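Whiteboard transcription, Tuesday session. T.W. wrote the structure tokens on the left side:
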């Protein structure tokens, strides 16, 4: 039975508002897409769709876990998280929940399980 395999791959990078507002970011992303299409061809794959969305690091309390470096959102400071846009539905695979424990910012995987935002809580 013939099937189609559709995969998701998330990327992230840090940028500045001025790069977003200018065309430098468009050029950077266009060049990336050209190169990724060439790479995918080697594996008989196609780039189905891609999009980029931006989140203010301070606004959403996004940082890296101090233990494992995973992107995380400090839910102690931002208990509401992201809005419920469809575009944000998979973001929790990239930006884990997290919080503060013993003066360290830790993702849900590294927090003690008794912490409100700990993985097992
Ligand atoms: Zn972690």
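and on the right, the sequence the group agreed on:
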């Amino acid at each position: 039975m013939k099937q189609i395999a559709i995969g998701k791959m998330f990327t992230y990078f840090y940028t500045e508002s001025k790069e977003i507002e200018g065309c430098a970011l468009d050029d950077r992303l266009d060049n990336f897409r050209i190169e990724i299409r060439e790479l995918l061809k080697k594996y008989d794959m196609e780039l189905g769709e891609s999009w980029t969305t931006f989140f203010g690091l301070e606004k959403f309390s996004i940082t890296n876990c101090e233990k494992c470096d995973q992107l995380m959102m400090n839910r102690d400071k931002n208990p509401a998280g992201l809005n419920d846009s469809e575009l944000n539905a998979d973001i929790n695979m990239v930006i884990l929940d997290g919080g503060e424990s013993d003066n360290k910012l830790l993702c849900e995987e590294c927090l003690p399980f008794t912490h409100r935002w700990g993985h097992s809580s």
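Someone added at the bottom: The longest strand covers residues 96-101.
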